[in-house]
Each structure stands twice: as C-alpha cells, then as structure tokens.
Amino acid sequence: MPKPRTIDPSESTRAMYGAELRHRRERAGMSQEELGTAMFITGAHVGMLEAGTRRMQPEFAKMADEVLGADGFFTRNLEAARKSPYEHHFADVVEFEGLAHTIKDWAPILVPGLLQTAEYTQAVVRAYDPVLDEGIVEERVAARQARAHIFTNPGKPRYWAVLDEMVVRRPVGGPAVMAAQLWHIAAMARRHRIIVQVLPLTEGANAGTGGIFKLMAFNDEPPMAYSQASETGRLFDEPTMVTRFTLTYDLLGGTALSPGASLALIEQAAEEYEDAHRTRSEDRTLA
After folding, report:
1. Among the residues of 201-258, which ranges form H helices?
2. Which of 29, 58, 137, 218 gives the lowest tally of CB atoms within 10 Å of its CB?
C-alpha cells in the first residue's frame, strides 16, 4: 500500500479533497482498509484518493458521504476535485504513471510524452491544431512536461521505451528541435534513467502496427495496459488483454536494436540534425 504522505490542502482542490477524506476517516476511527471495505475498494485505493494521486469516482463519493457522515461534502465537491489538465481519457493514465514501478512505452509515431522536450511538445501541439490559442498551447506543454517529474521522485519508476526508427527520423519542429530532443533522450539513457531501443525500418512489418500503447506495473495492484488512438484511448486491466499487450511489447523488444546500438543510432541522428541546422543557418546568413 502507498505510504501516507503529508498532504498540503493548498496544493490543489484534489489535495484538499484527499486531506478531507483522511480527516473524516481518522475522525471516524477507521483504517484505510476498513473504509475501503465499506466502499467496496481496496485500502490501497483509499490511500491513493487521500494522497490525491487518484480521482474519486461518483459512486465512491456517494459511499464516502454515507459511510463517513459527510453530509454530501464529497458529492458536492466531486467535479472540482476531478478536474485535470489532461484529456478526459488520459487523466487516469497520468495518475497511474505516478504510481507505477515499471512503465513501458511503444512509440511508432512520436517521442513518448514522458520523454518530450517542451519545444518538441509545442511543435506537436501546433501541428495538431495550427490555430490553437497560445495560452492553451502553453497549458498543454506545461501539463506534458509536468508528467516527467516522476523521473526525479525518490521512487522513480523503471522506464523502457521502444521507438520505431521513424520517430527518430521524422524532423518534428525542425533540425534544431529534433537535435535537442534526441540529445535529451540520449542523456537520460546515459545516466541510466531509462532504457531505449529503436526498431529499425529494415524490419518492415512488426508486431506494433496496431498503434501506440503503454504497460504499467504496480506494487499493490494488477498491471495495466493503455492503448491510444487519435482522439481517444482505453485502459485495460483484464489479464488476457494485458498479457496480449505484454507479448506484443516483448516481440517488439526482441526485434529492435540493442540498447547500446539504439543509443548510438540516436546520437548519430542528433549529430546529423545539428549539421542540418548549422547548414540551414549558414545558408540564411549568405542569403
């Protein structure tokens, strides 16, 4: 079960919500396990709600009000506590990333969000909606950057990514942005923060043609898989589906370059982007 942490209710509405849940539970003389039993969830789930790392669902808010005699507090404040800077289908994924001890990403199109630089993210957001308000662009960039804080946490997860080589070759944002992005990935790999493999284009058809997906494993909960499409995504905790995604990931890792060879390819590509940027700058100067 996640260890209780000191909650600062001023951090956010969700932190306030979690602090109130803990306060009322302790005042009722109940343990997390006891409250979880009364709400038909695990004690670990209660701990996540109190820590503000998991969103309260409507049915649980109603049960918390009833069990703790909260006079409708949790139901009334539910929407404010559930607000997230992420798309509705992705908000839960971000929470689970912060709880996972292992995260594995398959990235056939773009650099995984957890590894993106701010400039790369900005280019992606702008390409998706060229007329988007600048304030919204900044919010989305900040939200994606905030996810990377898990790599600096004491209990940072083990992270493994398999990238299609097109992710490395596609010049998102131009040569300068791509060079910085690839050096960022290389630096994290060289500091032993992450493991990255590249699936070469020469492999042709591969097991990951079905699209983007993520695997997450936890200490106290069953593993989960997340599959993403253009406008939506879905979380899976059914053992058969998680096993299927795990097999696909293993096949991708087995046909990808080794971590060492992948790092060499990424750094070589970064140098090529730097050369291209330098040449472009010189041409502009001469013009």
Report:
1. 239-255
2. 29
The pLDDT of residue 285: 64
Average pLDDT over residues 28-49: 89
* Domain 13-82 class in CATH: mainly alpha
Q: How far is CA 109 from CA 34, 82, 142, 190, 199, in A?
A: 45, 30, 21, 23, 12
Q: How many residues does this entry show for the chain?
A: 287
Mean pLDDT of 223-242: 90
Overall average pLDDT of the 208-221 stretch: 92
Domain ranges of the chain: 13-82, 89-286
Q: Using alpha carbons, select from 248, 257, 173, 239 the residue that is nearest to residue 213.
A: 248
Cα separation, 273 vs 270, in Å, equals: 5
Whether residue 253 contacts residue 161, with contact meaning beta carbons closer than 8 Å, is answered with: no
Measured in whole angstroms, the distance separating CA 172 from the mean position of its chain's CA atoms is 20
Q: Domain 89-286 is of which CATH architecture? A: 2-Layer Sandwich (3.30)
Token pair belonging to 133: 């308000």
The strand pairing partners of 103, in sequence order, are 159, 216
Q: What does the pLDDT read at residue 189?
A: 97
